[in-house]
Amino acid sequence: MRDKVLLEGKGIHRSFQTGGERLHVLKGVDIEIFQGEIVCVVGESGVGKSTLLHILGALDRPDQGMVRLNSKEIFTLSDQKLAGFRNESIGFVFQFHHLLPDFSALENVMMPRLIAGESEKVVGMAENLLGELGLSDRKDHRPGELSGGEQQRVAVARALVNQPQVVIADEPSGNLDKKSKDELHQLLLDLNQKKNQTFIIATHNLDLAKMAHRIYALKDGKASLTEL
Fold first, then answer.
1. Burial class (CB in 10 A: 0-12, 13-18, 19+), 78
2. Is the pLDDT confidence value at 54 over 80?
3. What is the CA radius of gyration of the chain?
4. Residues 109, 159 contacting (CB under 8 angstroms)
5. Cα–Cα distance between 130 and 127 in angstroms, integer?
6. Residue 179: exposed, middle, or buried by beta-carbon count in 10 A (0-12, 13-18, 19+)?
7. Where are the domains of the chain?
8. Average pLDDT of 190-208?
């Protein structure tokens, strides 16, 4: 039973200045994610899914509201401490993998731990992750030598290398072909089931959303639980 709230947002507001007007994207969003579940956020393009995920992942600060990760109010931290906390506690997978083109798959996976100042056992940990994701024979290849699906699996391995409390994925299969989409969706499900990894995923893909334990629909700046 998933009864521990791992990540929660309360009263999240976010607006942006566009030209001469203020655009209110999030208008008091409440959301909670339990330990060990997959939660999908759905909604039309431009409704604020990425904005919400960026706030939940501490990449952006809300205008109002709070976010707690494992009972810790993250926006009470300074920018410097927040960056360290984010690197240690949250993994990210984006639609465009954002791999470093001049580094190998293995080096890309290692990067978050190297940024954190760690070097001991990093190579072995990264190699193990790539092996679990079926990429052992591709570890020395640079991103340009990998298929789109392989690049995204490297990005997933990179998101997992710090053993994050939660992985936030923004349209992770949005740039993949049908076969690669299906493989990535199955990979995320396997990681959830085998590692009890918590995922928050923004997606337009109904097949992926149907795999979630719960689905939030974002509309008119608010989030509500829904079913497909």
1. exposed
2. yes
3. 17
4. no
5. 5
6. exposed
7. 38-60+78-226
8. 89
Question: How does pLDDT run across 71-99, given as a tens digit for each residue?
Answer: 889 999 999 898 888 888 899 888 777 88
In single-letter form, the type of residue at position 128 comes to: N
Q: What pLDDT score does 1 carry?
A: 44
The architecture CATH gives domain 38-60+78-226: 3-Layer(aba) Sandwich (3.40)
pTM of the model: 0.88
Cα–Cα distance for residue pair 125/116, rounded to 1 Å: 15
Strands 198-202 and 38-42: parallel
Q: How far apart are CA 187 and CA 67, in angstroms?
A: 28
For residue 181, how far is the Cα from the chain centroid? 16
- Name the DSSP class of 102: T
pLDDT tens track for 15-30: 988 878 888 889 999 9
Query: Which residue type, as a one-letter code, is found at position 90?
Result: I
Task: Please list, in sequence order, all residues whose beta carbon lies within 8 angstroms of the beta carbon of residue 72, skipping any fewer than 6 positions away.
Answer: 85
pLDDT at 163: 86
